[in-house]
Amino acid sequence: MAATAATSGALLNGLGSPFLHGGSRTQILLAGARGGVNVVSSRKLVIVAAAQPKKSWIPAVKGGGNFIDPEWLDGSLPGDYGFDPLGLGKDPAFLKWYREAELIHGRWAMAAVVGIFIGQAWSGIPWFEAGADPSAIAPFSFGSLLGTQLLLMGWVESKRWVDFFNPESQSVEWATPWSRTAENFANATGEQGYPGGKFFDPLGFAGTLKDGVYIPDTEKLERLKLAEIKHARIAMLAMLIFYFEAGQGKTPLGALGL
Question: Which of 70, 112, 176, 230 is deepest in the core (most CB within 10 A)?
């Protein structure tokens, strides 16, 4: 009889383990079987999710070594499909720099594509001739315009350059030419290249404002990072096509028959 009782107790304790108890309802039932004493194990069940498989830029091809599936790309970067046939990203430091360069060039390309279409649709002047057209509205001479652009762009790009190698170094009062603007240059998301905040995300696409404080939304940010890099790559390819068309005296709108 004592042996039977011991066996029943061991069985109930086993069913009450974190692996098998299933939930609070099962715990209550088991507690009743133990004589009304609800014994809850202090151990925790840890579930490790399987890692997502790496995406490939040629999904139909398996194998191929580092040409198809480079070992130095783990899929953690937005838009990482394992495309690095020249091995430019083998060094983690270079990989970080190339991603920063791709992001910045892509953003400029997106702005340029929109400007080229709107500019020609508005004025009828090809984008590669707009600066030399006599009817172009330009209150400044070419020299003053170039000097102003170099000065302003040089200041902004120098701050970005320094911040890349020394993050958050530019979000201080002395690094800005006016006062009380340090928070505008602070990185609200904590990720390189995605500053966010009230200044860089005023519409709150990747975060929300609560009591005047910007709170990033990680899920939205990750989705927008992927969308941005995809559009940036398409825009850079579009600009490459625009250059070839300009060499033949053609425009994007002309190529579309518009």
Answer: 70
